Amino acid sequence: MSVQKIAKLAGVSVATVSRVLNDSPSVKAVNKEKVLAAIKALNYQPNLLARQLRTSRTGMILAMVSNIANPFCAAVVKGIEREAEKNGYRILLCNTESDLERSRSCLQLLSGKMVDGVITMDAISELPELQNIIGDAPWVQCAEYDPDSSVSSVSIDDISATEFVIDQLVKTGKKRIALINHDLSYQYAQHRELGYLDGLKRHGLAYCEIIYADELDYLSGKEAVLSLLKNAQRPDAILAISDVLAAGVINGLNELNVAIPEDIAVVGFDGIDISQITTPSLSTIQQPCKEIGEMAFSLLLQQIDSTSSVKRVHHLLPWTFIKRQSS
Amino acid sequence: MSVQKIAKLAGVSVATVSRVLNDSPSVKAVNKEKVLAAIKALNYQPNLLARQLRTSRTGMILAMVSNIANPFCAAVVKGIEREAEKNGYRILLCNTESDLERSRSCLQLLSGKMVDGVITMDAISELPELQNIIGDAPWVQCAEYDPDSSVSSVSIDDISATEFVIDQLVKTGKKRIALINHDLSYQYAQHRELGYLDGLKRHGLAYCEIIYADELDYLSGKEAVLSLLKNAQRPDAILAISDVLAAGVINGLNELNVAIPEDIAVVGFDGIDISQITTPSLSTIQQPCKEIGEMAFSLLLQQIDSTSSVKRVHHLLPWTFIKRQSS
């Protein structure tokens, strides 16, 4: 531990270092000077050291990301990092892809007291198993939630966001709206599908077509749209539940010389950078990615800092529909 | 540790668990059954447990990623994961963005014996400081290297790859080739600039224009090309040192109705998925991302498994030029 290194270099006891860090008046001036010089030489931050000493915290948390290749996840991680570093915390990441064995290995950091808490982005289907492993340790679930769970969460209301997109498409005269979805073991995928079906029903639309992409990437989106267009009746609008899928859809339609949005409108979900640079630019539901990460860390810190048990909460942050050229 | 949990649940000693895991004949059948039942109930993998017992390894390594928002980094991580899991290892990630303080915090896992080794993707400028912290522990540097360093590395030859692109552009009649580069604290950025300058010189080209993007993302690429086109003499080709920058360049040129590749050709670098779905599709240098990650892990495992010191090596893997519509 850093305090021991400082004590060694300063030639004083660990207790003396601790007293200096906690600004105790009982330290000789000469020893205080030695300790401060050692802290400087070793390039440590005295405030963080003092905090760790007082609290026996590690100053690290574990963020278990569902898919680091998904730009949405990377944007959420940036938010977690930003809020964590403001509070003197560092982040360790695990790319779980909602694989329980991966999660289990990384969670050894929690039982080994190497991290003070954990933020997960795992599929709702994994929550019961994770609950067994994580128990009562500080824990926030992020961008995916179970309203019936006792685990705090931060997310958006995926059902109402998707219903809103359907309303917007219907307003522009679209009547045959298809959905490109992904892995239904995630609650967000289930909820977006629910919002889609509710939207169709409310507008009395008969056409209903759902395709499931294998991966959350461009090429899977392209593959999905090519297979969709083989059906007898073509859609006049496509909602993809992620911007990377939607970018692949736009590419596939461009190659087939389908006019976007005249023949087929396209809407994505997430509001990541790619939505701004497709040709045409992509209409999308903008998720507050960084804010989701920031709030997840804030909720976690409350649990870490509290001496008694903290009431678990489910935060739903606001989303925005951004209309661009594709719809 | 897991073995202790198993012992507790099975009601036997840790030594007995160890003997079962190592298939020792000296265990009573009834105890063996109890241990196997406990392993099953706790959902552990007996093979990994046995290996960890034999070797006193943790079965975890730390991968310090330079930027998790960069799809190239995510692709390299997939390669590391693939090879690691084949060998019973799990990965912890740290998004360092070549920030030494972040790296220092995460490397506590190494001194705390929570990981057996470390793969870094940090900028060459950080290598001396990292060397101070990591010392003789198993360590491989990835996608960025210093030929004079004693740290093993896996990368491609960035100079010859960039020279090759210049040759290809000259062959199609291009004479005013501009470069969009990024952070020169990275060796790869220095080397690609060197390859560009060498290429211009070999062909006796007078036009030379280099712009530095603030970030490795689409919008910075778009911003860079818009500023480049304000110059009195326009380029007739642009090489961007990353595909995400190049995708932003294509978007900027599309908005200005510049014909690609007739008026201005565009070439990227990395060979990530985005290069296939831009309009027009992007010519690029394909890096063997997954293979870089796989080989980095293999080299690291050699160091972990060896009882004596292992000779450090610098591997350069082959790249490919993929010609698409943009050049």
Automatic annotation (TrEMBL), chains A, B:
Keyword list, A-Z: DNA-binding, Transcription, Transcription regulation
Span of domain HTH lacI-type: 1-55
Keyword Transcription regulation on entry: yes
GO molecular function (one): transcription cis-regulatory region binding
Pfam families (UniProt xref): LacI, Peripla_BP_3
SMART domains linked to this entry: HTH_LACI
UniProt key word Transcription: yes
InterPro entries found in the cross-reference section: HTH_LacI, LacI/GalR-like_sensor, Lambda_DNA-bd_dom_sf, Peripla_BP_I
PANTHER family, per database record: HTH-TYPE TRANSCRIPTIONAL REGULATOR GALS, LACI-RELATED TRANSCRIPTIONAL REPRESSOR
UniProt name for this protein: PurR protein
Organism: Mannheimia succiniciproducens (strain KCTC 0769BP / MBEL55E)
